[in-house]
Amino acid sequence: MWHVKRHLVLLLIAPLSASAAAQVGPGLLWRIHKPQQPPSFLFGTIHIDDKRVKDLDRQVTRRFNEAKTLCLEILPNRETQVSIGRAMLLPKGQFLDEILGESLFNRLSLLLNKRGMTPLEAIYLKPWAAMVVLSRPKSQGGYALDEQLYRWGMHQYKKLCALETLQEQLSVFDELSLEDQITLLNDSLDYMSQVQALNEQLVQAYLKGNLDEIYRRSMELQAHDELANRLMKSLIDRRNVRMLERMLPELEKGRVFVAVGALHLPGEHGLLNLLRSKGYAVTPPDLKVSPW
After folding, report:
1. In the chain, how long is the greatest CA-to-CA distance?
2. Where do the domains of the chain lie?
3. H or E, element range at 258
4. Which residue, 214, 245, 265, 272, has fewest beta-carbon neighbours within 10 Å?
5. Is the CB of residue 45 less than 8 Å from the CB of residue 259?
6. How would you class 131 by CB atoms within 10 Å of its CB: exposed for 0-12, middle for 13-18, buried for 19 or more?
7. Average pLDDT over the chain, rounded to an integer
8. Higher-confidence residue: 110 or 196?
9. What's the sign of the alpha-carbon dihedral 263, 267, 272, 278?
10. The whole model's pTM is what?
């Protein structure tokens, strides 16, 4: 079971649904305010292309539309997409089938083939990259929520800011030893059916705006697995500190809409608590639509 939990660390960060009519927003949107500063808002996202998670609550869309600045983890522009593709590839002369061995690579190829990736393409992937490809729900042919917000921001001529570089974000995976990468990939293959079911439970928690449940599950992962604990510290805690440092100058100007993965919000080392430690009042927005 701890193998499933190791893999779920990634699902909590990447693919985190109530009925199709549910609207995303309550519990995921927070008002950030200091005296003498216009307030800003922090919104927890989910990095998948699913129309259910893109049906945003009126409160969320209003706060987004009124913001002057949009801050995202990274800016998902064309350059970033190309760079991500390159970063997922093994160094020249290395091949995934040789690293994994014939049996494990063949198991992987069968699943990747269902996602439209041939074995000839798969041999160039790093082990962590193959794992990430497997963990992502199939695209519905549109944009992930973060990219949708980015495109809205572009169309509204907002100031755009990235809270980290692509290199910083991907270093979490590249810093894993090859042995750890293979362990995670192997676990992904062994427990794919359970992972998909657990993934849906997390999506349900997300659509309900239930940060407590999302956080509780992440704590369960860390409690009994050293690899999961190390991953969580890198994927969440370390990045939270970095993102906080970079959003603070923007927050001082006010009217900022910050959108990051939902698991970055709760917990002792979460952004909600870190912002409070910097003197900000962090509260749910008024239920009624009110001015800034």
Report:
1. 63
2. 2-77+145-281
3. strand 256-261
4. 245
5. yes
6. buried
7. 83
8. 110
9. negative
10. 0.85
